[in-house]
């Protein structure tokens, strides 16, 4: 460390050259009195800005937190497709920050997923779509029994003879009495 004394002026290290500063090295700050039109034309849109901030934040995370963050990033992309732009901007403004925006996006994506599953169930119950499978073991309804009775073929003379005689065919074994 170089010390300055009253007899000797302070000496800058060789990389510090005070006289070589030019305006290109000094960052220009935007004036606070920019008009709304200037802000709209120069700044990226709110959704784009939120995407950029979310991508920057996600790139710093690792593991499950990073996975959750990137999932929220793509959920934001999907949300832009599904909902109007004003609603997405309102969500970003209401979230208040990146971390809360991630939670909001996960919640909204869950609600959309639940709504889509409910629509599938409703569509499954409608007549126009493919019917849902009926579980086994339910008793047949009256209409189903009448349809089966009408669809039966008429008995042959041999079948009528066997029914009146009371004997069963050789391949048929009756249910045991003890069951």
TrEMBL record:
InterPro entries from the UniProt entry: CBP1
Coiled-coil regions listed: none
One record GO biological process: pollen tube guidance
Region entry Disordered, spans: 133-179
A GO CC term attached to the entry: nucleus
Gene Ontology terms, MF aspect: mediator complex binding
Entry superkingdom: Eukaryota
UniProt-listed PANTHER family: CCG-BINDING PROTEIN 1
Record-given protein name: CCG-binding protein 1
Native source species: Lithospermum erythrorhizon
Lineage: Eukaryota, Viridiplantae, Streptophyta, Embryophyta, Tracheophyta
């Amino acid at each position: 460390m170089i010390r300055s004394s009253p007899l000797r002026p302070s000496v800058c290290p060789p990389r510090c050259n005070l006289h070589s500063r030019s305006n290109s090295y000094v960052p220009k700050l935007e004036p606070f009195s920019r008009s709304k039109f200037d802000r709209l034309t120069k700044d990226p849109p709110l959704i784009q800005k939120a995407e950029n901030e979310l991508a920057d934040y996600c790139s710093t995370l690792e593991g499950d937190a990073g996975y959750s963050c990137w999932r929220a990033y793509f959920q934001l992309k999907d949300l832009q497709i599904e909902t109007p732009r004003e609603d997405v901007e309102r969500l970003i403004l209401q979230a208040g920050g990146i971390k809360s925006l991630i939670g909001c996006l996960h919640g909204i994506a869950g609600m959309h997923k639940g709504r889509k599953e409910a629509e599938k169930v409703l569509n499954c119950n409608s007549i126009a779509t493919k019917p849902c499978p009926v579980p086994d073991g339910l008793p047949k309804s009256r209409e189903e029994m009448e349809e089966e009775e009408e669809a039966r073929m008429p008995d042959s003379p041999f079948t009528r003879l066997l029914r009146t005689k009371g004997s069963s065919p050789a391949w048929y074994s009756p249910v045991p009495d003890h069951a």
